[in-house]
Each structure stands twice: as C-alpha cells, then as structure tokens.
Design goal:
- It is found in: Cytoplasm.
- Belongs to the lyase 1 family. Argininosuccinate lyase subfamily.
- By secondary structure, the chain is mostly helical.
- It is built from 18 helices and six strands.
- The strands form three sheets. A two-stranded antiparallel ribbon has the order 1-2.
- Helix 3 runs antiparallel to helix 4.
- The protein binds arginine.
- Arginine (ARG) binds next to helix 6.
- The site of arginine has 10 residues, from helix 6.
C-alpha cells in the first residue's frame, strides 16, 4: 500500500530492497529525544503565532510526551516502513491523538527537522567531550602533582635527549587536552544556530517565529539562510575534526603507556583494573585499553573522512546522501567518549615508577647539553665549540663504558684543560631539571606553577 505520509501521488508501496536502503530508523532512533523536543517547540510556536489552535498544540504536546515515554520505556515499536525517527514519531502521534497530529508538520519539513535533531545531538556530544576531557585533565594533574620533581628521560626520536620531570610530561598532555576542549567549545559556538523553520529549503509563507523556537531549543539565534540551514553538515564535520585531533592526542599518550609499561622500560605500572592477562603466558599483564584507544582512533579519523566525502559533491540543498551523516558520527562520538573514559581510568590508576624513571633519566648521556652549556657559561666558549668538546667527552665515556658524571676530572681535562671540578654539579639530572626555569620549562618549580594554574582553570 502507498505511504501514509506522502501516499497522495503514489499507487504502490515500495520494494523490500528499497525499504532496506532507504530506512534510517535502525540508527536515527537515537535522535528521538531531540526530535520530540524540537516538535514540541515547533508546535508551541505554531500556536503562539496563531497558525494552529491552542487546543491542537496542547493535544500535540501531550501526545509527544506519551511517545517519548514509550520510547524511553522501550515499549515503542519502530517501523522500517516508516523510514526514520521523524515519521515514526509522527505516525505514533497520529495513533494517539488523531487529527491534530497532522497539523504538526505545518511550516516544517523533514529537511529542517533532521538538521535540527542532528545539530542538537552533536551539540550535546560536544558538551560530553568537554567533560570527558576535563576529567582526564584532572587525572593527569594529580599525576603531575605527585611527581612534579621526579626525573625521567625526555626523548626526541625516542632517543634520550635531556632529563625532564614526570610532572612536566603529564602537564604536556594537560595543555594538549586544553586545546582539544577549546576546539569543542569553538565548534559549539558556531553550531549553536537553529535550522528549524527553514522548512524544506526556501522558508515558508506561514508567519512563523524562528527566534521563539531557537530560544526554546537553547540556540543563540536562527540560521540566517534557509538553503544553508538544510544543506550543510559542517557542524558535524567540525565536531569530528575536533574529535580527530583529540583522538590523535589520546593515541600518542596510549602509545607512550604501551611503551612505558613494557618490561624494558618499566616507567609505569598499570592497575589490574585497566589491564588484561594472557591465556597462555602467566607472567603477562597487557595494556589492552591503551592499545584499543590507539586503534579506535582510526574509526574517528575514518568518520571524518567519510563525511567529508559524502558531502563534497552535493549540490545545494538536501540530498539523501546526507542520511549517511549520522551512523559514522554516532560511532565516532561513542568511541571518543569511551576512549576518554578509559584513558582517564588508566591515568588515574597508574603508578609512575620513580626509581626506574630516575635510573633511566641518568643514562644515555642525558646531561650532555648541561655540560655544553657549562662550557659556554663558565669558560666563555662559543656554543659550537662547547658542543664539539662535549661530543668528544661523550665519545670518551662511551669508550670507557661509563656515563658522563663517572669521568674523572683528568679525563675531562684531557679533552679541554680549562674544565674545573665544579662541572660535576651540572651533570646530575636533579640539577639539570632544576636549572630549566625558563617559562614553560621542566623545572619542578615551573611544574608546580602550571599545576596551580590548571587547577584554578578547571575549578
Ligand atoms: N532520514 C532522513 C535523513 O536522515 C531525514 C530527512 C529526509 N528528507 C527527505 N527529503 N527525504 O537525512
């Protein structure tokens, strides 16, 4: 039989395959709450502007609340024949209240309806992402506080570079995540305009009040162009962009946790509650959560790429291609929230192994730069010459199978006879990190200042 929403010009129903490719209800039922909230705001506006009667609006309002409770209670039977959440809700409303249900869709189209619902959903997810990020930042902050003065190797190329503090390393991620949260906030500001009232694409001849619905739905204002309102999904793309960058940061931290928890590094011990064992190797404690975060990031990047590709060739305004915007975004958002929560749990529960970090901090000639700086500061050598002399001393230590602080003063003098005994002061990792007091540097005093600043910011 013909479709109950647009059956007027149709004489036959659709093929089962057509229904399968066309229906979005299996996934867009996630928009039920947004759809019903949007419809309630629309109905209230239609009554306030005299487009429908107050009694019809009241019947619609009551009916929609019933539909919502049926959906929330799990009692609602979604129908693929009704295609999507918008038509499922409206059809049920008609069962419940009869004729007034047919007036709800006045001055509206599914095009502005879906743009609205999805925008509201993405807006909520931006808020959720910000909370998830802040929770993770708090976990990192407390790690930074515990180990503000713990020394560890700082790396470039994953080769020992200079000693840094554990707290400084934790705070690096707090900074990155701070920008991630800011990206979600920025995106939220731009997406917070209401498409409702754009109708199909051209606006409407009914005397609607778009300011009223925008306000009721917590938007800053209505979107200014009806074609744009139904045609763009840049708000979802911006969300996915912010999600991708945040996910990239999570993945780098995950990678570090995988490396750090290995028997070769032993920088951290992960908690049992965020690790798994092996079914064959009894000694194993695996960082699965970190590995899965590293991998789930692929889905988030994929979602952004997929939606960019869906959108890039579409003429204005709505094309059914755009129905493919939702599943990928849902999946990306779900996995981002899960990754943030798992990372928060891992970071909160992990134990930095202070002694092992300190032992590693001193190996690999990590204070060579301090030695070169000393030659510049105390002997007045040009840095390039100091660099060369230090290189020779590293080679000498390597030859002797020892570290820089283990060389004797005679060894030092054999390379440059101006060197004096107080050079050894700068060769300890503690003195090295303590000396890095330039703004943003790794000294414990700097770490404490940054921790205090972030505590204030996060409240
Ligand atoms: N299910 C559709 C979607 O997700 C809703 C909008 C349908 N609009 C239309 N003109 N067919 O995009």
């Amino acid at each position: 039989s013909a479709n109950q929403m647009w059956g007027g010009r149709f004489s036959a129903g659709v093929d089962a395959i057509m229904e399968a490719i066309n229906a979005s209800i299996s996934f867009d039922q996630r928009l039920a709450a947004q759809d019903i909230e949007g419809s309630r705001a629309h109905a209230a506006m239609l009554a306030a502007t005299g487009i429908i009667t107050d009694s019809d609006a009241e019947a619609i309002r009551e009916g929609l609340l019933t539909v919502l409770s049926e959906i929330e209670g799990g009692a609602f039977e979604f129908s693929a024949a009704l295609e999507d959440i918008h038509m499922n809700v409206e059809a049920r409303l008609k069962d419940l209240i009869g004729e007034p249900a047919g007036r709800l869709h006045t001055a509206r189209s599914r095009n502005d309806q879906v743009a609205l619902d999805f925008r509201m959903w993405v807006r909520d997810q931006a808020d959720a992402a910000i909370s998830g990020i802040e929770a993770l930042q708090r976990a990192l902050l407390s790690q930074a506080e515990i180990g503000a003065d713990w020394v560890m190797p700082g790396f470039t190329h994953l080769q020992t570079a200079q000693p840094v503090t554990w707290g400084h390393h934790m705070m690096a991620y707090v900074e990155m995540l701070g920008r991630d949260a800011a990206r979600f906030r920025d995106a939220r500001v731009r997406m917070n305009e209401s498409p409702l009232g754009a109708a199909a694409l051209a606006g409407t001849s009914f005397p609607i009040d778009r300011e009223m619905t925008a306000q009721a739905l917590r938007f800053d204002r209505p979107m200014a162009n009806s074609l744009d309102a139904v045609a763009d999904r840049d708000f979802a793309l911006e969300f996915l962009g912010a999600a991708s960058i945040c996910a990239m940061h999570l993945s780098r931290l995950a990678e570090e946790l995988v490396i750090w928890s290995s028997a070769q590094f032993r920088f951290v011990t992960l908690s049992d509650s965020f690790s798994t064992g092996s079914s064959i190797m009894p000694q194993k404690k695996n960082p699965d959560a970190a590995e899965l975060i590293r991998a789930k990031v692929a889905r988030i990047f994929g979602a952004q790429t997929a939606l960019l590709i869906v959108m890039k060739g579409l003429p204005l305004t709505y094309s059914k291609d755009m129905q493919e915007d939702k599943e990928q975004t849902f999946d990306a958002a779900d996995n981002l929230m899960l990754a943030l929560a798992a990372m928060e749990g891992m970071v909160r529960d992990m134990t930095g192994n202070r002694d092992q970090l300190a032992a590693a901090a001193g190996s690999g000639f990590s204070t060579a730069t301090d030695l070169a700086d000393w030659l510049v500061r105390v002997l007045g050598l040009p840095f390039r010459e100091a660099h060369h002399i230090t290189g020779s001393l590293v080679a000498l230590a390597e030859q002797k199978g020892c570290d820089l602080p283990d060389l004797s003063l005679e060894d030092m003098k054999s390379v440059h006879d101006g060197i004096t005994g107080n050079v050894f002061d700068v060769l300890t990792v503690e003195n090295s990190v303590a000396s890095r007091i330039s703004y943003g540097g790794t000294a414990p005093s700097c770490v404490h200042a940054q921790v205090a600043r972030w505590k204030e910011t996060l409240g």
